[in-house]
What does this fold into?
Amino acid sequence: MNRLSRAPDADPLYARPAAERPSYATGILLDAQDFTDEQTYHRGRLARALASLTGGGTLAGLRVSHSPATGAPSPRPEEIRVEPGLAVDRLGRLIEVPRPACLRLQVWFDAEVAADGGDRLRRAAYPNLDRFLSARALAEAGTNGLPPVPARGVVADVFVRFVACARGLTPSFATGPFDALNAVATSRVRDAYELDLAARESLDDGFDGLPSPGPDLAAIADPAARRAQLQDSILDAYPASGRAGSEGELDPLPEHPLGVDRTSVFLARVVIPVGAANPPARAGAAVLVDSWARRFVPSALLLGRWVGA
It folds into this structure.
């Protein structure tokens, strides 16, 4: 990936452009920006629809798991593995991971120690870890191949974000104050992705840093009260930031720590067992991956099966 193409503002949709499309007339002069604006309008309208319909989250796949290191005859480093799948971010952009991807856990841990002597890992290490996990992870911990919750562990979250990747350099006229016969320009932009593992600091009994699940409509037994809550939820759903034509940064969601792109989609929480020393050192217990605290976006087929269709 080109480093410039990975900048968040490389994609026009990151700026939440106003819904403005080019208007053509015979003889009108056009340049490259007009064609970019045409694409941006149609991409933006589709993205707004997807963001409003889904709210952002996992559409299919993207299961996260821990893969321990192996030795000879087939050596393999320790990894946090993300299976292929599809998500939609809060701007409505589709993020597809077409093949298995991984983050090397020990490499990440060592880099965190080297960056500041392990101070950030110390701030992300907690006892009483039950308060930071999903109900399903707590119910299955120690069973179904999931390790038990450790006594103390570093909490880190897995994110995936949309990346625009420049490809296909082709000869073109030079732009700007240049005089060149060998200028090139990008002829294709691929919708790609980037994985990130972020240590979670500042968690406590009142803030677990997990995505907000929204109102639990299924828990409301009275049909009239449930309908009223549904209506109110829709009326309150238009975001304070991220509106078309709005300026400034997106507001962070509860799952977005400082330094993580605010369009990133939360995939899983990873608990890395550590000892009592500070800075923390890894303990021998297995790494616990909680893949169920994310936002799930079920398909119409699954919803149909839910209601017995």
